[in-house]
Amino acid sequence: MNVVVTGGAGFIGSHIVDELLAGGHEVVVLDDLDPAAHDGIPEGLAPDARYLWGDLRDADVLERAVDRVDAVCHQAAKVGLGVDFADVTEYVGRNDLGTAALLSALHDRGFVGRIVLASSMVVYGEGRYRCPQHGLVAPGDRLAADLDAGRYEPACPTCRRPLAREAVPEDHPLQPRNVYAVTKLLQEGLVAAYAREHPGTIATALRYHNVYGPRMPRDTPYAGVASLFRSAYARGEAPRVLEDGGQLRDFVHVADVANANVLALTGEPASGPFNVCSGEPHTILEMAEALRPDDGPHPEVVGGYRLGDVRHVYADPTRAREELRFTAAVSFRDGMRAFSSAPLRVSTGRPPRP
Q: What kind and span of H or E run contains 99?
């Protein structure tokens, strides 16, 4: 099978490429090596893939990428909260216009097949909460006044009672809370629309939870929190943990994420959204402690917050297990131990050539 992997030189994409090649598939990588995340071509890319360096919005490079495509694995995106709202045009341009251009090129070719999209838990916004009196409720936006006062836990919007947390299933209401989250939700909608208008196409949206592991980018505003904490320890510094460190997340190893993508591309057809997660929530402070070297400083809980963040969000893995046949294999303890000394992304220093 000939698979196009957009963003295949990135953190997650490169692991997917490795697994596809190991399974005997042909892989075409399309990546623009966004300078906000890359400083030239990364080291360690699989030599057996074919690489096209260019922007998804470039019609010429897209035409070459999808020429003989049997399946599409769409990983390319600008990720994370970024610097501030000034990033909005970059996020929408790269994520949504880029996806639209890819789908337009597939339409022109008459493509019918599997499209696997890298989506994200951020489409849920806050996680799932239950009030003892009012049942399932959706907390409103977090207020700066509450956060400044250290009131981090959301309350029932009706009676203001404390809420019980639950794992988030795929049919949970979607409430994206920041620009990146909005762009991921639109990507899901565009890919689903393509599938509806091209019968026989299987569109799978993999909602990644907090992915970590080898080849994570380091020290950029777009890197994941695990990478930022890991880099702090490497500098001999204590990671700075916002709020009280009690924010719950689901940390899933990149090897498991790559496996979920390959299952969606090659296994039994599975359409719609799927949580890609470990099914085992941990706090941000637990994660920081799990990464700490034996002689390293303990994490520093500093309070503060980012308004675009949510308090708790962790996943229900049931649908992915039953329909995608995906179950995470790497435990939190083993994965974090390995990641504490795993190599982060290193550049060759060589710029891409079109």
A: helix 98-109
The secondary structure of residue 259, as a DSSP letter, is H
Which segments of 119-224 does DSSP mark as H helices, in order? 144-148, 179-197
Quick one: pLDDT band at residue 6, thresholds 50, 70, 90?
very high
CB atoms within 10 A of CB 130: 14
For residue 81, pLDDT over 80 is answered with: no
Residue with tokens 């022109």: 108
Task: Name the β-bridge partners of 276.
Answer: 208
User: Distance of alpha carbon 139 from its chain centroid, rounded?
Assistant: 23
- Quickly state the pLDDT bin for 80 (edges 50, 70, 90): confident
Asked if 220 contacts 230 with a C-beta cutoff of 8 angstroms, the reply is no
pTM (predicted TM-score): 0.95
Based on its alpha-carbon atoms, the radius of gyration of the chain, rounded to whole angstroms, reads 20
Q: What are phi and psi of 249, to 5 degrees?
A: -140, 165
What gap in Å lies between CA 162 and CA 180, rounded to an integer? 29
Say which DSSP state 113 is in. Answer: S
> What is the C-alpha to C-alpha distance for residues 186 and 179, in angstroms, rounded to an integer?
11
> Beta strands 248-253 and 281-283: pairing type?
antiparallel
- Contacts (Cβ under 8 Å, ≥6 apart) of 243: 147, 152, 284, 301, 303, 304, 305, 311
Instruction: Phi first, then psi: give them for residue 120, nearest 5 degrees.
Output: -155, 155
Tokens of 157: 């919007």
Longest dimension (CA), the chain: 61
The set of residues, in sequence order, having a beta carbon less than 8 Å from that of 153 and lying 6+ positions away, is 162, 163, 311
Q: In this predicted model, what pLDDT tens digit does every residue of 15-24 receive, in sequence order?
A: 999 999 999 9
Contact (CB, 8 A) for 217 and 127: no
Question: What is the three-class DSSP state of 49?
Answer: coil
Exposed, middle or buried, 86 (CB in 10 Å: 0-12/13-18/19+)? exposed
